[in-house]
Specification:
By secondary structure, the chain is of the alpha/beta class. The protein contains 11 helices and 14 strands. Strands 1-14-2-3-4-5 form a 6-stranded mixed beta sheet. The protein has a 6-stranded mixed beta sheet with strand order 6-7-8-9-13-12. The chain has a two-stranded antiparallel ribbon with strand order 10-11. Strand 12 (405-408) and strand 13 form a beta hairpin.
Length: 446
């Protein structure tokens, strides 16, 4: 019975506390079924491991018990504070890393539980089979070592797989999250005016500044960008997670990014403050005003359904920037291409910045053949996957048709491209595995 003492104590302490808080913040009640699911995983795995844990000395049992149940406590903590006004504005990196730890821990546990369930299912099927055979033959039930050894193998494999997954995800948080990679792309645009031959464009996207515990990684990325000596730097949205306050400590670093013809930016779905429980609409509007001022202060020209024309030796190239436009109803659909393209009909080459690649899929490639290149971000490649020379995979491909890298429209009158940047920052899980943070170097040729 002692094996159940700690789970029972956890339930007694956490569940009433959760509902007491939910009474003040009803929004959290809807997450209770998910908490029950996580609790079921915890109790099943705890029961399965109890013999091994129980054989440890008292200090070891206490330490492992605390570490084991910590993710559940973290989930309850995150669920509770998510309904407190502006709590995510105070310590965004802390919240991000607590969330990341919780996600990694539970995915690792879930992987282990799957193997344990297979082992238990195998033992149950074998028991039923042997019981039926014993009843038919009249012989006593034999308890061979085969079932035990196979069950033990599955459990050991489950622990090893869960441990490897946990280790990899932790490495993704402490190392690969800031393993910045420069990806070079050369594009041929037949209508490119001769003065723009060899134009060097650096694209960056999805900084998510609220996810970074330190300014140092962004400072390193800024140094890489400047070393590329770009003619243009184009940022394609999601500078923050929740609010403008997250960006303030990075001001000096970001204003140090330079390009010959300027740094341009657009907004992404996270930049509108839609993921914060603002006390009033006026505060949300003030947050947006602060963001617009921030872009001005760092010298990045923000394009909001508008364009800017770059002229070299009498020849012109149009940069177009739209507000977030997504085919997914969960995200803002504020982009207005007709408005953004006013006055540039006769300019031979047009480059569009649009945060969400579904915009290119559902509107740009179908209705605007004169837009030569669209630059997007948003997907992050789900920050998890495999990218080899002749093979790549990510969960992102099941959600987005165009999720990372270069794409070309089919049956277009002239070449029409989409490039989806994998992003520099992180959201949710504060790390990367396989899909590394990207700085894109695009060279234009005719």
């Amino acid at each position: 019975m002692r094996k159940y003492y700690l789970p029972i104590l956890i339930i007694i302490l956490l569940v009433p506390a959760y509902f007491l808080f939910a009474e003040a913040h009803p929004k959290t009640v809807g997450r209770f079924p998910f908490m029950v699911f996580l609790l079921a995983i915890d109790i099943y795995l705890w029961y399965s491991l109890y013999k091994k844990i129980g054989s440890l000395p008292a200090p070891g049992k206490v330490t492992i018990g605390i570490l084991y149940w910590l993710p559940l406590a973290a989930f309850v903590f995150l669920t509770s504070i998510s309904s407190i006004h502006n709590v995510n504005l105070a310590h965004p990196p802390l919240i991000s890393y607590i969330l990341g730890f919780t996600v990694v821990a539970y995915f690792s546990k879930l992987i282990t539980v799957v193997f344990f369930l297979f082992a238990d299912f195998y033992r149950i099927i074998l028991f039923i089979f042997r019981h039926a055979r014993a009843k038919k033959t009249g012989k006593p039930i034999s308890h061979g070592t085969t079932a035990i050894s196979r069950g033990r193998f599955l459990r050991t494999l489950g622990l090893a797989t869960g441990g490897m997954f946990f280790s990899g995800m932790v490495i993704g948080m402490v190392k690969w999250a800031h393993d910045f990679r420069v990806r070079g792309v050369s594009l041929n645009l037949p209508d490119l005016p001769w003065p723009f031959e060899g134009l060097r464009i650096v694209q960056i996207s999805d900084l998510h500044l609220g996810s970074w515990a330190s300014v140092d990684p962004i400072e390193e990325a800024a140094g890489i960008i400047n070393d590329l000596d770009p003619d243009l730097v184009l940022f394609t949205g999601d500078i923050v997670n929740y609010s403008t306050n997250e960006a303030l400590r990075f001001k000096e670093v970001l204003e140090g990014i330079h390009a010959k013809y300027g740094v341009y930016a657009i907004l992404g779905n996270h930049d509108y403050g839609d993921y914060v429980n603002w006390p009033s609409e006026a505060e949300k509007e003030q947050n947006m005003a602060s963001l617009y001022s921030f872009f001005e202060e760092i010298g990045w020209k923000l394009l909001r359904n508008e364009n800017d024309v770059i002229e070299i030796e009498g020849e012109k190239l149009a940069l177009i920037g739209v507000e977030n436009w997504s085919a997914n109803p969960r995200f803002p659909k504020l982009g207005n291409l007709p408005k953004a393209m006013e006055g540039i009909t006769d300019i031979p080459v047009k480059i569009l910045m649009s945060h969400d690649p579904t915009h290119w899929e559902k509107e740009v490639s179908l209705k605007y053949p004169d837009i030569d290149l669209t630059l997007s971000g948003h997907t992050h490649g789900f920050q998890f996957g495999v990218e080899l020379k002749h093979f790549r995979w990510s969960f992102a491909q099941y959600v987005y048709k165009y999720w990372a890298g270069l794409y070309q429209a089919e049956n277009a009158v002239k070449p029409q491209y989409l490039y989806v940047n994998r992003g520099l920052g992180m959201i949710g899980y504060p790390g990367r595995v396989g899909i590394l943070p990207e700085i894109t170097m695009i060279t234009l040729n005719s």
